[in-house]
Write a structure and sequence with these properties.
Helix content is about 0%, strand content about 60%. It has no helices and 10 strands.
């Protein structure tokens, strides 16, 4: 029985100057829906999010406590990687969205994505520091 739709966290980054990666598993498609970034330090620093090596979110955080939230609909296909980076200690980044079952083309040539069949990343190969 398929599960109801829910959001899942792909990345949670708190270690400075380290790219943290989430590889999209085979036969899955990740939809990044939300990005939350905070700077809890007095130092200026940058926060990045990439899909397949292309940056689509950059926040150049001013010194002082502050945050940035973005909603989006970015797609990462099976085999692609979602990556996040925080420059300074005390900064944080969370990237969340949906992980969908994607079994390719249907008989009529349309792409089949089963929105009712969601998988939690912890059930599949998950995020790892790189």
């Amino acid at each position: 029985m398929a599960s109801a739709p829910y959001s899942t966290r792909f990345l949670q980054v708190t270690t400075p100057n380290v790219w943290v990666s989430y590889p999209v598993p085979p036969n899955r498609r990740a939809i990044v829906k939300a990005i939350a970034a905070v700077n809890g330090t007095a130092a200026q620093g940058d926060v990045y999010v990439q899909i397949a090596g292309v940056s689509f979110f950059l926040w150049s955080a001013p010194g002082g406590i502050g945050g940035q939230f973005a909603t989006t609909s970015q797609v990462a296909y099976a085999g692609e990687t979602i990556r996040g980076y925080c420059q300074q200690p005390g900064m944080g980044l969370t990237v969340s969205g949906y992980l969908l079952l994607d079994d390719g083309l249907s008989d009529d040539g349309h792409l089949d994505v089963y929105y009712e069949a969601f998988y939690r990343p912890e059930q599949l190969p998950g995020a790892s520091a790189s």
